[in-house]
C-alpha cells in the first residue's frame, strides 16, 4: 500500500483530481476571492512551468550529446533512420484516424458547447526565465555531438558524461517534485474556465480518439516486436508512469525525464539507444496528437457545415501537418497551434478559420493529455526498433 501511495502515477492522479476539485471550488468563492485564487493558480502554474521548461532543453542536451559520442561514426545513418521511422509512425497514425473518423463521426450527434471563462493572457505575478527552444537544444546537441565524434575529442566526451550525471540529478531533485504542482494547477484552471465541461458535448469523439490512440500504441509495439524479434511488452510494461505523467502535464518535453526512467527498467533496450532516441522522438514523433488533430478537424467541419470534409483535403492536411508540427511537442496544445496556420488554406478552401479554430481548440485542450500520453508511450516502440538498427550497425562495423 505504501508503495502505491508513493508511486508517481498515484501522485499525478491525485494531483489531477485535486486540481479539478480546486477549480470547481474557486467558482464558489466571493468575487474578490475568485480573482485572488485565479491569479494564484495562474502564477504557480506559470512559475513551475517556467522551471520545468527551462530544465528540459538542458536534459535534451545532456542526454543526446553523450549518446552521440558513444555511437561514434554510426550516428549519421542512425539519425536518418530515426527521423524516417518517427515520420512514418505519425503519417500512419494520421491515415488511421482519417479512416476511423470518416466512418464514425457522421453517426454522432453534438449539442451546443458550454460557455468558458476567458483567462487573462498573463498572471499579475509573472516570472519569465529566458530559455532555449527544445528544437534548438536538440540541434545544438546533435552538432556538438558530431563535432566531438569527428574531432575525436575524448576529453570533451568525458566532460559531457559528467554533465549528464549532474543534470539527471537536478531533474530528480527539482523537476520531478514540481511536476505534480504544475499538473494540479493546469487542471484547476481547466475546471475553473469550464473547458472540462465540453468533454460531455464531444464525449463520443473524445472516446473514439482515445480508443484509436490506444490501438495505435498496441499496433506500434506489435510492429516493433515483429521487426526486432523481441517481446515489446518488456518495454511497454514499464510505461504507465510516463503515460500518466503525460496525461497530466500535456507535454512530451515535461514527461521526458519520466519516460527515460521507465525505459531504463527495460532489459531489452540499451542505454546509449534510449539516451539518443527519446529526446529526439519527444520533438519529432506526434502520432497520438495527430490522431486527435485529424479526428477533431473532421468533427469540427461536420459540426459547422453538416457534411464531411473532402477526403483529399484531409489526406493533404495529414501529410503537411506531420511535417510542420515537428518541434511542436513540449507545450500543451502545441500541435493544434502549429496546424492552425494550414486549416484555412487546406481544409476550408481559403475561408476564415477563426470560428473553426476556436471550436477545435476547446475540444483539443480537453483531450490533449491523451494524445501526449500516446506520443510518449509509442516512443518506446520506436526506440526498440531503433535499438535493433544500432545493433546491426555495430555488428557491421565490427566485421570491417
Structural summary, described in words:
Helices cover 79% and strands 0% of the residues. It has 400 residues and is mainly α. The model has no long low-confidence stretch (mean pLDDT 81).
Tags for this model:
single chain; 400 residues; mainly alpha; 0% strand; globular
What are the SSEs and their pairings?
Blueprint: H1 2-6, H2 8-26, H3 31-71, H4 75-104, H5 134-151, H6 154-193, H7 198-201, H8 203-228, H9 233-236, H10 240-249, H11 252-264, H12 271-284, H13 287-305, H14 311-324, H15 334-347, H16 354-399
Helix pairs in contact: 2-6, 2-10, 3-5, 3-6, 3-11, 3-12, 4-8, 4-12, 4-13, 4-14, 4-16, 8-13, 8-16, 10-11, 10-16, 11-12, 11-16, 12-16, 13-15, 13-16, 14-15, 15-16
How do you describe this structure in short?
With 400 residues, the chain is an all-alpha fold. The protein contains 16 helices and no strands. The chain is globular.
Mean pLDDT score, rounded?
81
Terminal CA distance: 54 Å
How much of the polypeptide forms β-strand, as a percent range?
under 5%
Low-confidence stretches: none
Amino acid at each position: 500500500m505504501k508503495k502505491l501511495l508513493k508511486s508517481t502515477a498515484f501522485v499525478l492522479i491525485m494531483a489531477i483530481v485535486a486540481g479539478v476539485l480546486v477549480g470547481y471550488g474557486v467558482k464558489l468563492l466571493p468575487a474578490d476571492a475568485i480573482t485572488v485564487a485565479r491569479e494564484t493558480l495562474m502564477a504557480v502554474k506559470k512559475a513551475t512551468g517556467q522551471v520545468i521548461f527551462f530544465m528540459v532543453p538542458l536534459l535534451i542536451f545532456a542526454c543526446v550529446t553523450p549518446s552521440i559520442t558513444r555511437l561514434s561514426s554510426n550516428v549519421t545513418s542512425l539519425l536518418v533512420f530515426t527521423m524516417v521511422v518517427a515520420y512514418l509512425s505519425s503519417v500512419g497514425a494520421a491515415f488511421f484516424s482519417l479512416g476511423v473518423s470518416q466512418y464514425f463521426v457522421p453517426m454522432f450527434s453534438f449539442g451546443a458547447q458550454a460557455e468558458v471563462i476567458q483567462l487573462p493572457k498573463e498572471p499579475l505575478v509573472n516570472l519569465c526565465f529566458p530559455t532555449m527552444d527544445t528544437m534548438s537544444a536538440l540541434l545544438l546537441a546533435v552538432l556538438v555531438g558530431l563535432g566531438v565524434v569527428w574531432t575525436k575529442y575524448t576529453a570533451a566526451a568525458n566532460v559531457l558524461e559528467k554533465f549528464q550525471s549532474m543534470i539527471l540529478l537536478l531533474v530528480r531533485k527539482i523537476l520531478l517534485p514540481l511536476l505534480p504542482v504544475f499538473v494540479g494547477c493546469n487542471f484547476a484552471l481547466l475546471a475553473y474556465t469550464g473547458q472540462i465541461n465540453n468533454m460531455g458535448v464531444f464525449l463520443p469523439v473524445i472516446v473514439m480518439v482515445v480508443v484509436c490512440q490506444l490501438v495505435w500504441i498496441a499496433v506500434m509495439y506489435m510492429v516493433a516486436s515483429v521487426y526486432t524479434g523481441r517481446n515489446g511488452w518488456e518495454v511497454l510494461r514499464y510505461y504507465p508512469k510516463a503515460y500518466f505523467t503525460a496525461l497530466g502535464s500535456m507535454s512530451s518535453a515535461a514527461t521526458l525525464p519520466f519516460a527515460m526512467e521507465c525505459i531504463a527498467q527495460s532489459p531489452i533496450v540499451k542505454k546509449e539507444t534510449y539516451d539518443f532516441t527519446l529526446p529526439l522522438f519527444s520533438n519529432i514523433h506526434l502520432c497520438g496528437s495527430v490522431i486527435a488533430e485529424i479526428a477533431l478537424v473532421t468533427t469540427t467541419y461536420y459540426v459547422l457545415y453538416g457534411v464531411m470534409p473532402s477526403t483529399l483535403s484531409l489526406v493533404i492536411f495529414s501529410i503537411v501537418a506531420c511535417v510542420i508540427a515537428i518541434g511542436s511537442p513540449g507545450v500543451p496544445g502545441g500541435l493544434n497551434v502549429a496546424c492552425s496556420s494550414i486549416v484555412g488554406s487546406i481544409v476550408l478552401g481559403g475561408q476564415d478559420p477563426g470560428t473553426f479554430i476556436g471550436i477545435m481548440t476547446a475540444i483539443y485542450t480537453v483531450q490533449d493529455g491523451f494524445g501526449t500520453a500516446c506520443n510518449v508511450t509509442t516512443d518506446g516502440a520506436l526506440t526498440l526498433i531503433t535499438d535493433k538498427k544500432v545493433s546491426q550497425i555495430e555488428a557491421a562495423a565490427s566485421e570491417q
